[in-house]
Amino acid sequence: MIAYYNAMADYVLPYLKNRPLSLKRNPNGIADKGFYHKDAAKGGPSWLNSFGEYAESSNKVVDYIVCNEKATLIYLANLGCIEMNPWNSTTRSPDKPTYLMIDIDPSDKNTFDQVVSVAQAVQEILNRAGAISYCKTSGATGIHVYVPSALVIRMK
Q1: How far apart are CA 14 and CA 16, in angstroms?
Q2: How far apart are the first and last CA of the chain?
Q3: How far apart are CA 130 and CA 98, in angstroms?
Q4: From CA 15, how far away is CA 11, in angstroms rounded?
Q5: What is the 3-class SS of 118-143, one letter each residue?
Q6: What number of CA atoms fall less than 13 Å from residue 99's CA on the CB side?
């Protein structure tokens, strides 16, 4: 995995640049349940960039890792970070998302076909509002409806 991220860094880094990360770590491999990691904490390398933001869920400032260079990407891969989930906004404007992602997951009572139908309905509504959007698979069972820019909605 480290070799993969090393080879793909030029393609991955533009999507992570200046965006705080929520990480899913699987240091024992993909079959392991893994855990979520948000706070860079004090034990990381001194060169690691982070962005502090108050989190109501933990009632403290969380220092989210920001991955702007290959060294950080390789460091995260070495930690077993299989999922690197960037914020929809950047450190420069944390309250202004640059894209919109609608996550549609099935419940125990829904099928994947129903998830697809809901995603298509969401996309149709966005199209009517003038927004460009794309549906893509997410995780094992869901669909993301991705709107490339939060500013693309134009009233007709």
Answers
A1: 6
A2: 46
A3: 17
A4: 8
A5: HHHHHHHHHHHCCCCCEEEEECCCEE
A6: 17
Q: What is the CA radius of gyration of the chain?
A: 17
Residues 102-112 have pLDDT tens digits of 999 999 999 99
Q: Are the C-beta atoms of residues 1 and 77 closer than 8 Å to each other?
A: yes
Q: Which two tokens stand for residue 60?
A: 């403290």
Q: What is the pLDDT of residue 89?
A: 94
**Tens of pLDDT, residues 60-83:** 999 999 999 999 999 999 999 988
Which residues, 6+ apart, have CB-to-CB distance to 39 below 8 Å?
62, 63, 64
Structure tokens at 79: 């930690």
For 82, 109, 144, the CA distances from 49, given in Å and listed in that order, are 19, 42, 28
